[in-house]
Amino acid sequence: MSGDAVKWNKRASMLYAVGIWTMLGTYGYYRYQHRNDPPVEMPKEEEDTRPNVKTIKTSHVSTTIVYKEDFVPYSTRFLNLFRPTTNSSSGCEDDEK
Length: 97
What we know:
Blueprint: H1 2-33, E1 53-57, E2 62-66, H2 74-82
Antiparallel strand pairs: 1-2
């Protein structure tokens, strides 16, 4: 039984070594082939100032969200189900905005 474990360990080690050397060789090949290529420059995008456009920028990604003209978020729709439909003296008066 220990002979099978040794064979399996050798085969797994060889497979791992072949995979690592293949990955390193491919990386070196592509580095060597593309060493004189100019760097890729991304085109500059203009900022959109429409009120229904929201741009979220992080250090790596810039995401632009364009809402429909009469968009109401689902959270607001859900909360409107639980708000009273009539004005009461105990309710908040900012609901009319």
